Amino acid sequence: MRARRKITIDLERLRTLEPVSTLSEERLQELLPLTDVERVPLGGSLFREGDLDNQTLYLLEGDVQLTSSNGRIDRIVTARDPEARFPLDDSQPRQATAVALTRVEVMRIDNNVLDYMMTWDQLASAAPPVPPAAEQAARPPEEGGADEVDAPAPTGDGSEAAATPPAAQAAEAPAPQAGGDGSWIRKMRHIMAFKAMPPANIRPLLERMESVEVKAGERIIEQGGPGDYYYVLTEGEAKVTRTVELATLQPGIGFGEEALISGGQRNATVTMLTDGVVMRLSRKDFDELLREPMLQRLSPEEARVAVAGGARWLDVRHAREYHHAHLPKAVNIPLHELRLRLDELDRDTAWICYCGTGRRSSAAAFLLAQKGYRASVLNGGVRVIAQELVKADE
Question: What pTM does this model have?
Answer without folding.
Answer: 0.60
